[in-house]
Amino acid sequence: MELYLGNMLKYFFKGILMTTSNREDKLSQLGANNTNYHYHYKPELLETFDNAHQGNDYWVTLNADEFTSLCPITNQPDFGTLIINYIPHIKMVESKSLKLYLFSFINNGEFHEDVVNKIGKDLVELMNPKYLEIVGLFYPRGNISIHPTFSYNNGEAYYQELEKHRFFNRNLNPQRIG
C-alpha cells in the first residue's frame, strides 16, 4: 500500500510540476536507479530538455565548485571552479548530465584554457543558446592561478553587444580563489 501511494503521489506531483508535456522523457540520467561515472572525457553524457520560457531572456548560472582535471604534462590533478552562465534558446542542459560530463574530465589531461574551450564548444553544440560564457577559476599552481573564459553569442546584434561588454569588463572585479 505504501509503495502504491508513493507512486501515485510521484505521478501527481510530476504532473503539477512539469509545465510542458513529456519534458523529461528523453532524460536518461535524471531519476536513474544508479549512476555510472565515466573517468574519461565523454560529451555524449550531456542531455537537454526544452526551455519552457522561450519567449523570455533570462540567465541560468551553474557553478561546478569541485571541477578536477589533470595537467597534461605532470599528470597532477588541477582543481577549480567553473561558472557557466547562459541565456537559453530552445534547449537547456540537464544538470545531472552536466555533473556526470564534468566528472568525465577527472582523468583527462588538458591545459585549463583547453578544458574551458572544449566545455564551451560542447555546450554550444548541445544547446545552441542565445549567449554562453564559462569562467574557469583554477586554484594556484606555483603561485599562479589561471582564469580562462570562453564566450559565445548566436550572432544577433543584442547578444554580440552583450558578449563584447562582458568581455571588456570581465577583469574590473577579478575573482580570486585559493
Largest sheet: 4 strands, antiparallel
Give the neighbour order of strands across the main sheet.
2-3-5-6
Count of alpha and pi helical runs: 4
Helix content bin: 25-40%
Global morphology: flat
Q: What is the N-to-C succession of helices and strands? A: HEEEEHHEEH
- Number-wise, the strands total 6
The tally of structural domains comes to 1
CATH superfamily: GTP cyclohydrolase I, C-terminal domain/NADPH-dependent 7-cyano-7-deazaguanine reductase, N-terminal domain
Q: What is the annotated CATH architecture?
A: 2-Layer Sandwich
Quick recap:
The protein is α+β, with helices and mostly antiparallel strands. It has a single domain (38-172), classed as 2-Layer Sandwich (GTP Cyclohydrolase I, domain 2), CATH 3.30.1130.10. The chain is 30% helix and 23% strand.
Could you explain how this protein is built, in words?
With 178 residues, this protein is of the alpha+beta class. It has helices at residues 2-17, 95-103, 112-127, 157-168, and strands at residues 48-50, 60-70, 77-87, 91-93, 131-138, 149-153. The chain contains 4 helices and 6 strands; from the N terminus they run αββββααββα. The protein is flat, with a radius of gyration of 19 Å. It starts with a helix and ends in a 10-residue tail after the last helix. The relative contact order is 0.14. The model is unreliable at 4-21 (pLDDT under 50).
